[in-house]
């Protein structure tokens, strides 16, 4: 008979507690956030919205204000989310948090999902044609096989 650890995190036992959506300001990521908000509302789960700020050392080496630009993007996304949440607050009661991580989009989303103990990950489909060859973040998350992943077109 195996002994269970009471403090061990176990996904999916009583429904999802945290549904994470990766957002980057693109139309598909905002649709993913809306879809994740609906899931969170129906499941009474926390909606964790995650923006991964890219770290672009080449731009910094050329003197480009990369950090300032990505901070502005994050602030713009937060403002858009707050405005949308305010519009629907009487219709939907969704608990949500916004988190920013830095680095590569895939690695940042993996780190976020682990730290936030996400039960599910929702991302938008890539809008880049180049991802057919390299592989999109969504495909890499699905292949990781750590969480249920929903890809929203």
TrEMBL record:
Domain of life: Bacteria
Annotated Gene3D superfamilies: HUPs
Organism taxonomic ancestry: Bacteria, Bacillati, Actinomycetota, Actinomycetes, Kitasatosporales
Domain UspA span(s) in chain numbering: 17-153
Coiled coil ranges: none
UniProt cross-references to CDD domains, sorted A to Z: USP-like
Alphabetical list of PANTHER family matching this protein: STRESS RESPONSE PROTEIN NHAX, UNIVERSAL STRESS PROTEIN UP12
Pfam family, one: Usp
The protein, known as: Universal stress protein UspA
Protein family: Belongs to the universal stress protein A family.
């Amino acid at each position: 008979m195996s002994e269970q650890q009471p403090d061990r995190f176990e996904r999916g036992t009583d429904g999802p507690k945290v549904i994470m959506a990766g957002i980057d300001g693109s139309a598909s990521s905002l649709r993913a956030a809306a879809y994740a908000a609906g899931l969170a509302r129906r499941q009474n789960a926390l909606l964790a919205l995650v923006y991964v700020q890219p770290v672009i050392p080449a731009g910094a080496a050329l003197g480009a204000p990369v950090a300032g630009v990505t901070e502005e993007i994050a602030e713009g996304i937060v403002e858009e989310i707050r405005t949308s949440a305010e519009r629907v607050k009487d219709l939907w009661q969704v608990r949500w948090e916004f988190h920013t991580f830095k680095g590569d989009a895939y690695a940042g989303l993996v780190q976020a999902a682990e730290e936030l103990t996400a039960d599910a990950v929702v991302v938008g489909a890539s809008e880049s044609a180049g991802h057919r060859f390299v592989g999109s973040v969504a495909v890499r998350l699905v292949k990781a096989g750590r969480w249920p992943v929903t890809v929203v077109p």
